[in-house]
UniProtKB/TrEMBL annotation:
The keyword Protein biosynthesis is annotated on this UniProt entry: no
Official protein name in the record: Tripartite tricarboxylate transporter substrate-binding protein
Xref: Gene3D superfamilies: Bordetella uptake gene, domain 1, Periplasmic binding protein-like II
Superkingdom of the organism of origin: Bacteria
Signal peptide bounds: 1-24
CDD domains given in the database record: PBP2_Bug_TTT (cd07012)
InterPro entries recorded: BUG, Bug_dom1
Assigned protein family: Belongs to the UPF0065 (bug) family.
Organism this protein belongs to: Pollutimonas subterranea
Keyword Signal: yes
Keywords of the record: Signal
Length: 326
């Protein structure tokens, strides 16, 4: 009996060591990086440079897989539903902070293990070069004096650029619907419409407005950030121009499904911090006109929760809040 007991104890110890050793060796095989948007876009490009750098950090291939559809719901769902073993990760985008509030899904930032915020591009407010409004204060005065007259565009109804402008107006105690939002298939066609005189305002990021600004067809009035953007250092912040503390924009970060093992989480957080600070990553982002932002682990989770709360208030204010189907 004593020998049998000692044998079982020894086998249990060996099994535990085997499991521990196998787990500590993560990653032992290739990792999948899910991107909720199509190949060739900004999110895809950002994910691929991160994946390439992760391969150097972790010593295993990181394969990018685009899972598109449902305004980002399909890809974000695939990340959340993956096995939490560290072999399926993904890039979350700003839409995850809006989807549930708009009734598109039951998913929220709480359904993930946050690893790192990697990119932030604040919204900016642009008008056409021929617009009579030379400053943000002049534009806001015109919106207040003539509610409903000046029209904005830049994305679909309820998209990030719609929320950005509506949130600003709400922050200033102006009806968020005072500048009607015309849906578009993105910032690029909206900027063309702005230059043609079909709309009056495009609240999009400076990188997305860049081509029209550089061509002398659009004029940026202010950026919705805490500090000026290096891309256009002469463009003031909202705080500087009109005293508003409203800040928002698009962001992208890396996360895993909820319940990732702590050691995997810590290893990923450290790797992503190294990448975020690397010359290769910062040079790539600068070449694309993308901003570099960072919040690691739990701080990224807090950042997403704050975004969701702020967006939820704006979505309700413009009448687009919906209960998701169970």
């Amino acid at each position: 009996m004593k020998k049998r007991f000692l044998f079982k104890s020894a086998m249990t110890l060996v099994a535990g060591l085997v499991v521990s050793t196998a787990h500590a060796a993560w990653p032992e095989r290739p990792i999948t990086m899910i991107v909720p948007w199509g190949a060739g876009g900004g999110t895809d490009a950002t994910a691929r440079i991160i994946a390439a750098q992760l391969e150097k950090e972790l010593g295993q291939p990181v394969n990018v897989v685009n899972r598109t559809g449902g305004n980002g719901v399909v890809g974000h769902s695939a990340i959340a539903k993956a096995k939490p073993d560290g072999y399926t990760l993904g890039m979350l985008t700003v839409e995850i902070a809006m989807m549930k509030k708009q009734g598109l899904t039951t998913l929220s930032p709480a359904d993930y293990t946050p690893l790192a915020l990697m990119n932030v591009d604040p919204a900016a407010v642009s008008v056409s070069a021929s617009s009579p409004y030379k400053t943000m204060a002049e534009l806001i005065d015109a919106i207040k004096a003539n509610p409903g007259k000046l029209k904005a565009s830049g994305t679909g109804q309820g998209g990030i650029w719609h929320i950005a402008l509506a949130g600003l107006l709400k922050n200033l105690n102006i009806d968020p619907l005072a500048a009607p939002f015309v849906p578009s298939n993105g910032a690029a066609p909206a900027m063309l419409e702005l230059a043609a005189g079909g709309i009056d305002i495009v609240p999009t990021s400076l990188p997305e407005a860049r081509s029209m600004i550089d061509a002398g067809k659009a004029r940026p009035l202010a950026v919705m950030a805490d500090k000026r953007e290096p891309l256009y250092p002469d463009v003031p912040t909202l705080k500087e121009s009109i005293g508003s503390d409203w800040t928002t924009g698009v962001w992208r970060g890396i996360a895993g499904p909820k319940g990732l093992p702590e050691d995997v989480t810590q290893k990923m957080v450290a790797a992503l911090k190294n990448i975020n600070q690397s010359k290769e990553f910062t040079d790539f982002m600068k070449s694309r006109g993308f901003g570099v932002g960072y919040a690691g682990g739990a701080d990224y989770g807090v950042f997403m929760q704050k975004s969701e709360a702020e967006f939820g208030e704006v979505i309700a204010a413009i009448g687009m809040a919906r209960e998701p189907a169970k």
